[in-house]
Amino acid sequence: MDEALIFSRLDVPRILTAWGAGRAVYIPETAGAQTAFALFNPERGLSLHFGNTTLSPKSFLFPQTECLLRFATRGPEAGLCQTEPLGAQKRLLFGVRPCDAAAFALLDRVFVQDDRSTDPFWALRRERTLLVGLACNSPDETCFCTAMDGGPHNTAGLDILACDLGDEVLLRPVTDRGRALLAEAAQAATGVPARGERGGAALGQAETRRMGAEAVMARSPFVPGLTLEAVSRRSQRTVHALGIWPRIAETCLNCGVCTFTCPTCHCFDIQDETKGGSGRRVRNWDTCMSWLFTAHASGHNPRPTKVERVRQRFMHKFKYMPMNLGGRPGCVGCGRCVRQCPANIDIREVLRAMDMACRIAPPSSLIPDEAVS
Amino acid sequence: MNAYARRIREIAQRLLAEKRVDAVLGYRAGTVPMRARPFVARTPAEAGELTWTGFCVGNLARLAAGLGGRLAVCAQGCVSRNLVGIVRENRLRREDLTVIAVPCLGMLDARKIVTRMSGRAVTGVREEGDEVTVTGADFEEVFGRGDVKRDNCLTCLHRNPVLADEVVADPVPETGGGDIDKLIELWERKKPEARFELFTRTFRDCIRCYACRDACPLCHCATCFVNRSNPQWLGKTQDEPDVLTYHLLRAFHCAGRCTDCGACESACPAGIPMRRLTSKLESDARRLFGHEAFLSLDAKPALAVFSPDDPDEVFS
User: Fold this and answer.
1) Residue A370, C-beta contacts closer than 8 angstroms, at least 6 positions apart
2) What is chain A's pLDDT, residue by residue, as a tens digit (373 residues)?
């Protein structure tokens, strides 16, 4: 199924039910002020009217807590490790926003870099998880994907992109897996190929909605002109030494809301937990906002105050990750940290402050920088 | 601009111009609807950015303790009590603190507003008297302030600041009018198993970002017990025992000190009703020991007082 198909919106639950054969299907569900991915239940139906999920879907591929292996400390098995079986079930996430899909594509480059460093847990879950995106027609006030190499109808990281056209839904395949999935959909409901006059009209409507969504961000006081260009021209040391950081960090509470709700933050901590004669090695999300994150065994802490920790988060997103990823920002512009930060520290304002300060900073040193994370 | 904001600016500009303080801690407009941002104004010009809305839901006493210098702080009833707390706990000297007293009509709950909008995006909120007008691209809806107030503000017992070096407005009725003991009935009528079930369910969605801890003006340990690594007192996982232990210990650290300011609940990204635990502590301190936290600089903290006829119910 190479071409896009148009379905009646009323057929979406039927399609999801069909996709659910042999897979767990998750959809965004809103309860009160929170929206979260939940198992699709045809009886509860679904809504395509949600901004984005409160938390990012990253925990589907990178769980907050994950057992990596088990070991024994006593007896004949002492010192032996057994890797935890990789048992990722087949899943399909419907309604992933393009920003979050872009984050998955970005994290692929962190967790699956080469044969020697592939993270098998991420890779297997990624392989067994199909992503059907839902294009954004009405971005939130906090959205800025267009400034972060993304767009409200972008397809990076997705298998299919769905676009809500009101009474109809346009499904566009992105990958081979997406094409196979679209064929399944066409068996469950009647899909009209998006060609000819009717198809042209639907594609035109989708295009209008894309432009409308982009216009919303273009009208925002925070998005136009947002660029990493000056930051990229300056050395790491220059950006590091900018005078802006204490003021930005001043009202930060140093909680982990920004990092834990962020779709691209991926730092973790590995711990061995032992009880009696056995134990497990477990990986948990960690946050650079925490004092403990960089505490050395010696007692020294290279990031002793919140100023260094806050700087680290923005340096990672806007300097280190672009250095490692050929210029791609480490942020996808989903706006969650803007929405959720208890102190309303707005990453868009921070980037703008970095940009302005980089423009007027004295020339960078000639010593080349090495990217770090 | 509302009268409160205008008056706060006047006071802050005067304090800074006369060099009576080095900085004024208050709020400025948020970057998105239904938000206000903590802000440290250091010049009269910066003080012109200060504002006051129903979305000043953090607790500035949290930031006041770490800023240094002579500081003026905009404080509602609860925040003024927490300022008493940080003075009592020697985290800030009274002579370095100027309280800009803000009689409080109760702060608003952005989640309640979002819930009532059922999916429609909010672009602005206007507050006039007892009315809150919520606007969007193609709608405008008016609510009574009580309908969208935070729960803790509905049952507030002390809306007027207990310290007042500068005053923003005339006093308001002292209480929010609601029944503060209602919330703990949730626990009291339940058998232990059902209590534990409710406790478990309440914190099920916790992501351990510690926003509740970090928003709280009571926390003062140099190294929080959850960050202790030698020995490590608490596991890092999302497993129930780790999550529940964190919440239980955090709550106990607030015993006799919690002012029910609601900052923890407002900060939680998962929408967890944090006050279910802390309100029980507040209630025990008040009903069993006749103690309300930090009402004056002279009152002794509940945990610093022992009397042979103290009730024992607290252990049951």
Assistant:
1) none
2) 678 999 999 999 999 999 999 999 999 999 999 999 999 999 988 888 889 999 999 999 999 999 999 999 998 888 888 888 877 789 999 999 999 999 999 999 999 988 888 999 999 999 999 999 999 999 999 999 999 999 999 999 999 999 999 999 999 999 999 999 999 999 999 999 999 999 999 999 999 999 999 999 999 999 999 999 999 999 999 999 999 999 999 999 999 999 999 999 999 999 999 999 999 999 999 999 999 999 999 999 999 999 999 999 999 999 999 999 999 999 999 999 999 999 999 999 999 999 999 999 876 655 555 555 4
Query: With left for phi above 0 and alpha for psi between -120 and 50, is residue A95 left, alpha or beta?
Result: left
Closest of A199, A140, A186 to residue A15, by C-alpha: A186
Nearest CA in chain A to B64: A251
- Report the gap between the CA of B36 and the closest CA in chain A (Å): 7
Predicted TM-score (pTM) of the model is 0.94
B270 interface with A at CB cutoff 8 Å: yes
Q: Given an 8 Å threshold on Cβ–Cβ distance, is A49 in contact with B114?
A: no
Nearest CA distance, B47 vs chain A (angstrom): 15
The answer, yes or no, to whether ipTM is higher than 0.85 is yes
Do A261 and B38 count as a contact with CB atoms less than 8 A apart?
Answer: no
CA distance B100 to chain A (A): 19
